[in-house]
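Collaborator request log, item 7. Partner lab (contact: R.S.) asked for a structural prediction of N-acetyltransferase domain-containing protein to inform their binding assays.
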Amino acid sequence: MTFIIREAREEDVLKIQHFISKAGVSLETVPNGWEPYILAEDTMESIVATAALQVIPTNAYLIRSLVVDSEQVSGSFLIKMLETTIQYAREKGAKCVYFIVKQGGDMMESLGFTLLSKEDIPKELKQLNEVKDYLKKGYPVYCLQEVGDK
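Returned to partner:
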């Protein structure tokens, strides 16, 4: 099946909210509006994946709301969606892209992400309410820096 990954538009708001709700994610925990979202659609223009980028001071972005319809897309598509989201953040000027996941592992490192220790997590990230909740739960925080910044 063919999928198109693109920036969200204003008319996508309800479709994004419906897709995220259908996946069982509370809308209270995701960014509002359409501006931060990238989405993937099938040929029928049904959303099969979303990702949002939240601006963090110091030229960084946090990947949020990476939601994928696992019945429609494969694990390799998840990687493609993540890579496209990272590229989009880079085009916006990101020096670092953060990603918080329930479980880390080899996939994150294979994409170039580095696991951050609690001490290395920047205060700008720690201060975000949604990030505080993840840190309390012990979720790992990863950072992907520009090649020259490591």
